Amino acid sequence: MKIETLVKMANDIGNFFNAESNKDIAAEGVSKHILRSWHPKMRREIIAYCKEDGSALSELARTAINKLDQA
Amino acid sequence: MSINKQQDFGTPASAATQLVTLEIDGFKVTAPVGTSIMRAAASIGIDIPKLCATDSIEPFGSCRLCVVQIEGGRGMPASCTTPVAEGLKVVTQNKSLADVRRGVMELYISDHPLDCLTCSANGDCELQDMAGAVGLREVRYNPIETHLDAVKDESNPYFSFDPSKCIVCSRCVRACEETQGTFALTIDGRGFDSKVSPSQNEAFMDSECVSCGACVQACPTATLMEKSVIDHGQPEHAIITTCAYCGVGCSFRAEMKGEQVIRMVPNKDGQANHGHSCVKGRFAFGYATHKDRMTKPMIRASIKDAWQEVSWEVAINHAASELKRIQAKYGKDAIGGITSSRCTNEEVYIMQKLIRAGFGNNNVDTCARVCHSPTGYGLKQTFGESSGTQDFDSVMKADVIMVIGANPTDGHPVFGSQMKKRLRQGAKLIVIDPREIDLVRNSPHVQANHHLKLRPGTNVALINAIGHVIITEKLMDEAFVKERCDIASFAKWETFIAQEHNSPEATESVTGVPATELRAAARLYATGNNGAIYYGLGVTEHSQGSTMVIGIANIAMATGNLGRDGVGVNPLRGQNNVQGSCDMGSFPHEFPGYRHVSDPATHKLFEAAWQAELSDEPGLRIPNMFDAAMDKNFMGLYCEGEDIAQSDPDIQHVHAALRSMECVIVQDIFLNETAKFAHVFLPGSSFLEKSGTFTNAERRISPVRKVMTPLAGYQDWEVTQLLSNAMGYPMNYSHPSEIMDEIASLTPTFAGVSYDKIDELGSIQWPCYDEDSVGTPIMHEDSFMRDNGKGLFMLTEYVPTIERSSRKFPLLLTTGRILSQYNVGAQTRRTENNAWHAEDRLEIHPHDAEDRGVKMDDWVGIKSRAGETVLRATITERVQPGVVYTTFHFPESGANVITTDNSDWATNCPEYKVTAVQISKVNQPSEWQEKYRAFSETQLDLLEQGTSNS
Ligand code: SF4
Ligand code: SF4
Ligand code: SF4
Ligand code: FES
C-alpha cells in the first residue's frame, strides 16, 4: 500500500492522541489504535518504513510504531 | 388473508395515568382521564358514528354525527370532543340521536356525487359507511347549488384531489398541521363556499406540500386518493413490513392485490412512526418493479466483454471458482466483501460469516464506513456501546433540542415531523450547521433560538467552546459526573477544556460563530432542563468525525443529559439498516455485537459455533481494499447492495481500483454503477421480495416481510448461502428466523430477540438480554456499558483539516440530501419522485456568484484537487459566503469526482463535508463527465448485447 497513505493515517491518529500530555499514554493510545484497526500487512509496512526512514512520521506516531514493533 | 383494517378509535389516546370509570350504553368502561367518550366507547367495541374525527389528530367537533346523550346532562354533546368523567352514563343510540345523525348525513349526501359503485373509495369510504350506519334511506333536499362539478387536481404524481367529493371535514388540514407540521392546507372561504385549499389556492404540486400522504390517509372519502387505488382498485390483503429507505424505519402495511402492491400505508401501531410516513416510503416503491430491474444472473470475463445471461448454478459456480482461483494465486487475503445498510440484518450476518469463515479472512466492510463509522467508534469509547441512547419518542420530553449537522425534515422526515411537533409545543432549538436548514426559520411555527452557522470543518473547535462555557461558567451537573462517570478522565478533560484556546472568544475566528451567540447557546443547552442532541453526517463525515462524536458525548455527560427520557445523544442514521449492519459484525475488526476479533473469548465462541478457523487480525477497510487493489494485493470483491462506484469519495481512484480487480461480483437489484465494473452479476431482491429484519436509528429491530415472489427467484440471503456452499463452506438455513436465532445465541445484546417476539411486540429495541426482556428504549439508565460502568471523558483537541480554502480553491463545498431523493438515487430516480428533484444543483451565495459572473441556472464547473464536475447553479442565501453546497443523488453529477481521500483519523470515514473548490462559469460538461457518459453507454450496450437474445 502507498506508504504516504499509511504515514498520513498514522499521523492523523497521532494528532488525536497528542492532546494527552503524558506522551507515554499518548503513544500507547496510538499503537493500540493501529493494532486494533489495521490489517497486519499495513502494520508490517509502516513498521518497516519507520525502521528504514520514518522521517515523514510525527514524533508521537514514530514512538507508537516502535512500540507496536516491540509488542 | 384479509385487509384487516386498523381500528380507528376516533381520537388520540390520552397519556394520563389517572383512570375513571363510566357507563356507555349500560356497559362499564374504565379509561384514562382526558380520553374522549368516543374513544372509550370504541375501546369496548361500541362504534359511535363519526366523520370529522380520526385517531391520528385532535378532535374538532364539526360534523355533529357523533352526538350522544349523557344522563343528567343537557343537549347532545359531540362524543369526540367530550372527555370521559367518573360516573357518567352515556347513551349512544336512541331515536333522537338517530334523527340528528340522519339529518346530518342527508345534508352531506345532498352535495355529494352518488357514484358509489364506480368510486375509487368504494368499499373504503367512511361517508358510505356512515350512510349505512345511520340508516340513510332518502335525501329530501334538492340543493340549488352544489360542488359536483368542481375540477380535480391531478398535479401530484401519487394522489389525486377531487373536490367534488369533499365534505370539508378538515381532517386533511389538521393532519397536515398536527402530524406532518407543514401547514400546506387551509379551509378557504366560509359556509357553502368553504373548500380545502393547498397554500393560496394553488395546485398541490405548486404548494408547500411535501407529499407525505398524511392528508390522504386522514381523508374519509375519495377526495384525496392514491392514484394507484384509482388505477387498480382496492387492495384485498395487507402485510406489515418496514420501509427500506431511511434510518427512521417506519412501519408500513403493504396493501396488496395478489402479488401487486397497491399502496403502502403507514402502520398506526408502528412504534417508530405512529402511523406517519414521508413521500419515499409511502409512495416511492415503484422502483421494485421498474423495467430496469435485473432478474437474470450474468457473467463475463472482462469488463470490455458483453454480458452473458446464465443459470444461477453457472453464475454461482463461476463466482466461487474465480474467488478460489484468486486466493490460490494471490493469497487468502486477496478477496473480501462489502455489505450494505440496504441489506437485512440476516443478510449482513451471513455475508460476514461467509467472509470470516468461508473466505478465511476479515476483509468485510460496510457502507457505514462512509457515514456513521465515527459514531460507532466515538460512542463505544465514551459510553461503551456503538449506538444512540434514546428512542424517538424521547424527543417529546426534550426541553432543548440541539441539531448538529443534520437536516431532519429532509433526511429523516417522519422523525423531523415529531421533532417539529415538540418544538411547536415550546421546546427550544439550537441548530449547528453551515447552512440554513428548514428548521432554522422555514418551518411553520418553528424558529431556532440559536443558529450557529459555523465554517465547514470546524465542528470540534465549536463543541470544545461549548464544553468550555459549561465548565468555566460552572453549568455542569456535578452529581451526575461524580456518580456516573470516570472521575480521572473527567479531571483531565476539565483541565483541557478550560484552557483559553477552547474559549468561544478564541475559537470565533476559526468557526466564524460569534462568541456571545455561542455562549448563549451553551447556557441554554446546559441549563434548559432536558437537553437532547440529534446529529447527522455533518458531524461524522469529517477528518475529525470521531473527535466530534466524542466531543458531543463529553458535553452530554458533563451536563447530565443522559440516562433518562427527553435527553441523550442521538445519531440520525442515514440508511434504513446502518445500525443493524454495524451490529451484525460487518466491520473488519469486529464480530457481531461490536466485539473485537482478537478478543480471545469471542474468537473462541465464533470458531466453535461456525466450525471454522477464524482470523484474529483486523481485515481491510473499504479504502484499504481499493489501495490494496492498486497494488495487486486485493483482486476479488463480493459487493452486495452497495454502489461504491458512485457513493465513495475520490471516485476516479475507486474506478481505477475496480478496474484492476480480476473478479468483481455485484449483487443488486439494478445494474448500478459498480456493476459496470463487474464480472459476475447476481440479481438481488427488493425489500418487498424478502424476509428479515431492519434495525433503525433507535436500535429498533423491525420485521421485513416478503410480500411478493423474488423477481429473480431467490431472496438475497439465499444467494449468499448458495455462494457459501459453492465456496465449500456449508450453510443450510431454511428461513431467516434461523439466522436470527443464531445471532441471538452468539450475541449477548440480542440474546432475547426472536422472530416470535418481534411478531408479538411489533419490534424490539436492543439490548435485549434474555427471553423475558422486551428491549431497551433508553440506554445507560443506571450505568454506562463500559467495563467499569462509568462514562469516559476524552480529550478533543481541534486539528484543522488539510482541506482548507486557498487561493486556488477558495470555496468550501459541503454536501447533503433532500427529501424526495435517496442517497445514490438508484431507487428514487426510478420513481415519480423526480417530479420534485430531477437534478443535483450547486447552491452558491449571491456574493460568490456575482464575483464569478454566475447567474441562476448557469452551468458551473466545480474543481477540487481530486477532479472536476459540472452542475447548474442555484443562487441562495441559505449558504454562507465562502461555502457552496450540493446533493449527490445522480451519478452523472459526479459529486464524488471532487471529494478527496481525506478521512476521519479513527475510522477513515471520508471527509465528504469539506472539499476546497473553485467555481467557474462553463458551457459544457467536465471531461470526467464526458468520459463517464461514454463508459456508461458502452456498458449499457454490453448489457444489451448479452441480454437481447433472451
Ligand atoms: S401530502 Fe402531507 S404535506 Fe402535502 S398536503 Fe397532505 S399532509 Fe400536507
Ligand atoms: S379532502 Fe377529505 S379530509 Fe379534507 S376536508 Fe375534504 S373530505 Fe375532509
Ligand atoms: S421517514 Fe424514512 S423510514 Fe419513514 S417513510 Fe420516510 S424514508 Fe421511509
Ligand atoms: S366526529 Fe365528532 S363532531 Fe365529527
Largest interface: A-B, 19 and 32 residues
Give the DSSP E fraction of chain A (strand runs of 2 or more residues): under 5%
Q: How many strands, what sense, and barrel or not for the largest sheet of chain B? A: 7 strands, mixed
Number of strands of chain B: 34
Please give the count of helices of chain B.
Answer: 31
State the major sheet of chain A. none
Instruction: Give the uncertain stretches of chain A in residue-range form.
Output: none
Approximate helicity band of chain A = over 70%
Please state the second-level CATH architecture of the largest domain in chain B: 3-Layer(aba) Sandwich
Any chance you could write out the topology, listing elements then pairs?
The complex is a heterodimer of chains A (71) and B (950).
Chain A (H helix, E strand, L loop, with lengths): L2 H15 L5 H15 L2 H13 L6 H12 L1
Chain B lengths: L18 E6 L2 E6 L4 H7 L25 E2 L18 E3 L3 H16 L15 H8 L25 E3 L9 H10 L4 E4 L6 E4 L15 H5 L5 E3 H6 L4 E6 L8 E7 L2 E7 L12 H5 L14 E2 L8 E2 L2 H19 L4 E5 L5 H15 L4 E3 L6 H11 L16 E5 L3 H4 L1 H12 L3 E5 L5 H4 L8 E3 L6 H14 L5 H7 L2 H11 L6 H8 L3 H13 L3 E5 L1 H4 L4 H14 L10 E3 L6 H6 L6 E2 L3 E2 L3 H11 L11 H9 L5 E5 L3 H4 L3 H10 L2 E6 L11 E4 L8 E4 L4 E5 L11 H12 L8 H11 L8 H7 L2 E2 L45 E6 L24 E4 L1 H6 L7 E5 L4 E8 L7 E5 L7 H4 L16 E7 L5 H21 L3
Parallel strand pairs in B: 1-4, 14-15, 14-23, 16-17, 16-19, 17-18, 19-20, 23-24, 24-25, 29-33, 30-32
Antiparallel strand pairs in B: 1-2, 3-4, 5-8, 6-7, 9-10, 10-11, 12-13, 12-25, 21-22, 26-27, 27-28, 29-34, 30-33, 31-32, 31-34
The complex binds iron/sulfur cluster (SF4) (3 copies) and FE2/S2 (inorganic) cluster.
FE2/S2 (inorganic) cluster (FES) binds next to loops of chain B.
